[in-house]
Amino acid sequence: MRIFQFRPHDTRFPFPPPDFLVTKGGQCVEGTRPECIKNNGDPATLRSWEPLLENGGPITKWRGVMARLAVVVSLLGLSPLGCHTHTLQGTDRNIKHVSASGTMTDSGQGPQGQAVAPSHPASPSEPAVRNDVENLAGPLTLETLERLARENNLTLVQAQTQIEGERAKALQAGLYPNPLVGYIGEQIGAEGTAGEFQGGFVQQEIVTAGKLRLSREKYLARASAAEIQALGQEYRVINEVRIRFYRTLGAQERLIIQRELLKNAEDALVTVQEMLNVGQANRADLHQAKVLLEDQQLNVKRAENDLALEWEWLITVVGVPRPLEALGGSLEGQQVRIHWETALRRLLAESPELGVVRAKLKADELTVKREKVEPIPNLILQGSAGHSYETRDTVYGVGAFIELPIFDRNQGTIRQAQADLRRQQAEVRLTELRLRRSLAAQFQQYRTALQHVGNYRDVILPEARDRYTTRLKSYGENRGTWPAVLEAQQDFFLRRLIYIDHLVAWQGTRVAIDGLLLVDGLASPAGVTVPGHIDAVPKPR
User: I need a labelling partner for 254 at 20 to 30 A (CA). Which of 106, 226, 239, 505 fits?
Assistant: First the structure.
């Protein structure tokens, strides 16, 4: 006994007739549906077949037409990842597809507009999609998200404040000492007089050996390090936005396929029920089909939860809380191969991480120079003027002072600065090695993902699609079974899921390599001053 099922509600198989059964002996077998046709093409009951048989002829003519339609539909409508946009509604996220011809269909409806029940109703506590004016312009693009991240990510604000702080230190470190103004009264009260001398003085410290210039240059070098670090932070934010964008886009694609697999599981359950009625399946097969359907419903819910999580991660990096919206874009993109030698040279030449440690090395070199001139004494000049009550004349005075570096010649601080310099010199080389190691890990993942993407796109998916269309054609020609068609379709969808995983992995590693390995857009930028450096003085130097 052969079972043939045509489901008009299924957008993937748009065959006009409803389900029917044919027996070898010409006897009509009652199935789960009332329609039944004998194997010679004569109607046993017309019911919903009556409009179709008025102008259509025998049912055998339908088979060839349907098989040809199936092949055309499968070739045109089941590309691995065609051009499409998505409009998500609540947790069900009815996703509209735009075909290459520009026509739009809704995965939540059949070809005649019949509504397909969602996997589960949306609850008020789950994120809902905003259907307001903002969505009229189309899905959210990567360029829009990058612009929002540049405007709202707070780590970029922190990076800018570090630049301002280091520039303020440079300004303060180069300021000249303030003069000292005072009053002098000598021998006050002697013999009842106002004293021998009453007057004032002005004292000024003259900074020698270019100390102020060196101090300012040191902090300007740190300000340069902060500027490079701010550039690196922007890399981190934009790279994180791009990675999260592709991960969210992949979650959208997975949800589409999981819902297609849910339809497949529903078809499989109906098929097993009808096979049970004609003795081609047993109760154990029916229970297994129900288990697989429930399991697939859970897969759909998990895909919805994964999409909600990826969306939250994305908008967190962007810095603007937004309800769940559709993303516009493609996971595939232009697959330009990255070469190891080119990527390594660019990384070592342009990496902001390496630029920061080199700028810090320059600052440490200036610190050593600055501390070496610290023992050179500054000159302190003093001038005074007043009235001498003894001679009753206006008198003047001058003075000059220096500090003799006999005991404290800044020996310890110089050694500390030299140790910091040696540590920073090693840090430059260590940073180069760490970057090379990180690039090697990313490049290995990139190369593996790219190999899988190319193989799936060029070989595996076309072969799986051809297997499915062959099974569908054989079924239409009465040379195959419907369960075999469903199995081939399920295999094709599962391989598309794997393909999406490889696309997401490829895009993530590609963004990381192109973005100089800078990720994690919510990590606060590190300070440009390493703990232990010479900063614990009243005035920066």
Answer: 239
Helix (H, G, I), strand (E, B) or coil at 484: helix
Q: pLDDT tens across 59-94, in order? A: 333 344 344 444 334 433 444 343 333 333 333 333
The DSSP output letter for 368 is H
Q: Which among 453, 447, 431 has a CA at the least distance from the CA of 504?
A: 453
- CA contacts within 13 A on the Cβ side of 428: 15
Identify the bridge partners of residue 468 per DSSP, sorted by sequence position: none
481 phi and psi angles, rounded to 5 deg? -110, 155
Q: How many CB atoms lie within 10 A of CB 323?
A: 15
Taking the C-alpha atoms of residue 33 and residue 270, their distance in angstroms, rounded to an integer, is 10
Residues 33/17, Cβ–Cβ less than 8 Å: no
Instruction: Note whether 81 and 476 are within 8 A (CB).
Output: no
Helix, strand, coil percentages for the chain (3-state, nearest 5) = 55, 10, 35
**CB distance 134 to 98 below 8 Å:** no
Half-sphere exposure of 116 (CA within 13 A, CB side): 21
pLDDT at residue 197, as a whole number: 81
Segments in 319-333 forming alpha helices (H): none
Residue 314's Cβ-count burial label (10 Å; 0-12, 13-18, 19+) is buried
Strand pairing partners for 387?
A: 198, 394
Q: Which helix (H) or strand (E) holds 60?
A: helix 59-77
Which residue positions in the chain have pLDDT lower than 50? Answer: 1-136, 536-538
Buried b / exposed e across 54-67, counting CB within 10 Å, b at 16+? eeeeebeebbeebb
Dmax (CA) for the chain in angstroms is 148
